């Protein structure tokens, strides 16, 4: 089939121009569709990351609510949010697996969230042991013990022991309020003084009072140990580790989001550069074809003009090889055949005129002879 196509014809040249235009448009449209879909996916993932950030903020909110109010309902709300956050990470992980370095960041994010959730529940468990209110946990035990001891001291009118008891309770309250270990040492000192005073008293219920005091002191020291484990401020103990882990989680989520933002920016630039390259190549090809076609057409037109101009003075054949387009070559062949036919007619006419002249001469000679 290619053997029958005349690549130097106007029709073929026009078909080539149309094909180049269509191919350029198809490639451009295909590139736009592919990269637009990629951008849509990246933006969708960016929105999902924003949802993750929102979920993380809600988790931090429930965390703060629990630490401030010690209400178990916030733990339940945290569990629900954490489950949703974990499910979103599971859904996003296969998508981010296609994004190279971002996949590593996302794996780190998933691991950090697992640690964050585990540390929060450890903190909740320890806080539950301390007591979610004044009547539960270690707080409830030493409060119950000290109330029993205070009732006995008040009933027996042991004023000096009551003073030591109040001083010991004051140190206890100072520690619970300020979380300074100096108050624990002061509380121990008053405990020893009160224990010695109870032992030296002549009351019949000394053993019962000592048992209540020891129960109070044991529960208070358990509470102090638990608070040391949790952290006496927001930078120490389990609370400090938990806070640091939350900040790490937030930082990793920010890095993943920044990485995705860079990928979106790179994809947008790639779309712009690729589209510009396709349009440039298509334009150059079209300009080359059009300029070449124009030059060929102009040369062929000038050859025909010169041909008809020369035909006024002399008969000359056209060189079809110089005309470019096959249509003009075909016209040149017809023109040459027309010249040849006219030359033949003129030769025949000249021969006929000579023959007529000879016949007239013969007739004249015959008339003179008669």
Primary descriptors:
370 residues; mainly alpha; de novo design (two linked rop proteins); 3 domains; rod-shaped
Description of the structure:
There is one protein chain. The chain has about 375 residues and is mainly alpha-helical. It has three domains: about 10-130 and about 235-280, de novo design (two linked rop proteins) (Up-down Bundle); about 135-230; about 320-360. Helices cover about 85% and strands about 0% of the residues. It has helices spanning about 10-70, 70-95, 100-130, 135-155, 160-180, 180-200, 205-230, 235-310, 325-370. The longest helix has about 80 residues, at about 235-310. It is rod-shaped. The mean pLDDT is about 80.
- Per the CATH scheme, the topology name of the largest domain is de novo design (two linked rop proteins)
State which percent range the strand residues make up. under 5%
> What's the tally of helices?
9
Q: Tell me the radius of gyration.
A: 53 Å
Chain oligomer state: single chain
**Largest sheet features:** none
Q: Work out the count of structural domains.
A: 3
The second-level CATH architecture of the largest domain is Up-down Bundle
Give the overall shape. rod-shaped
Q: Kindly report how far apart the N and C termini lie.
A: 78 Å
Q: Give the strand tally.
A: 0
What is the CATH top level name of the largest domain?
Answer: Mainly Alpha
Outline the low-pLDDT stretches: none
Helix content: over 70%
Order of helices and strands: HHHHHHHHH
Mean pLDDT: 80
Structural class: mainly alpha
Outline of the structure:
By secondary structure, this protein is mainly α. It has helices spanning 10-69, 72-96, 101-130, 137-155, 159-178, 181-200, 206-230, 237-311, 326-369.
